[in-house]
Design brief:
Layout (H helix, E strand, L loop, with lengths): L2 H5 L5 E11 L9 E7 L22 E3 H11 L3 E5 L9 H9 L3 E6 L11 E4 L11 H4 L2 E6 L3 H10 L7 E6 L4 H14 L4 E2 L3 H5 L3
Parallel strand pairs: 2-4, 4-5, 5-6, 6-7, 7-8, 8-9
Antiparallel strand pairs: 1-2, 1-3
Length: 209
């Protein structure tokens, strides 16, 4: 294969915003050590997004995926979380194939607004109203995480509870800036609907990335 052909492989270069080794802070995998890969680009446009710096893909350099994988292996981790932005704007098949070749667990955090690519050990789906999920991602999601900003978001949560598979873990997570006002509502909701669990952004309490 020529060098030209090599760079034409989808996903051989990715717009890297940042990468770091830390603990997972939200949802089912909370407290688990993992290497985070944050990719640039997102047009979902959540008003409360805490990673807006990732939205503009053009300001983040395209990095050789091989270099990203090298950094993962150097960290000593056994698990990688790919997040964004919206990571499924990019073909993640090559990244996952190479990581799995090194026996690295692959996790993704996505809104599902773009078609699913890659091989994943854990899919956390967090659907957004302005760009709902596409394809069959609801059928294969391992975790459904709904951000609760107001009471209407409980209706959105129930809609997607009915669309995911029966083994999918269900989480309600307070929007950080509304925590004080919305957490009592979430607590009461979970008491009445015990199939749901509460997800907190524990990394913010621990002051870690």
């Amino acid at each position: 294969m020529s060098k030209k052909d090599d760079f034409e492989i989808p996903g051989k270069k990715l717009p890297l915003v940042e990468e770091f080794f830390t603990l997972q802070g939200e949802g089912f995998q909370t407290g688990r050590a993992a290497y985070f890969i944050r990719l640039g680009g997102c047009d979902v446009g959540c008003s409360w997004c805490d990673s807006r710096y990732s939205w503009d893909q053009d300001i983040h350099p395209l990095v050789d995926t091989e270099k990203i994988i090298e950094n993962v292996l150097d960290s000593g981790t056994d698990s990688v979380v790919v997040t964004g932005g919206e990571p499924l704007m990019w073909d993640l098949g090559y990244l996952c194939k190479e990581l799995k070749g090194h026996r690295i667990n692959t996790f993704i955090e996505t809104s599902g607004a773009y078609p699913l690519t890659g091989i994943w050990d854990w899919i956390c789906l967090s659907p957004k109203k302005n760009m709902p999920p596409v394809g069959k991602i609801c059928e294969v999601a391992d975790e459904l995480k709904i951000i609760i900003q107001n009471k209407n978001d409980f209706i959105w949560a129930e809609k997607y509870k009915d669309l995911v598979n029966k083994d999918c873990k269900l989480f309600l997570q307070p929007e950080w800036s509304k925590f004080q006002t919305i957490i009592p509502e979430i607590v009461e909701y979970v008491k009445k609907h015990p199939e749901w669990r509460v997800s907190l952004q524990s990394h913010k309490y621990m002051h870690i990335p």
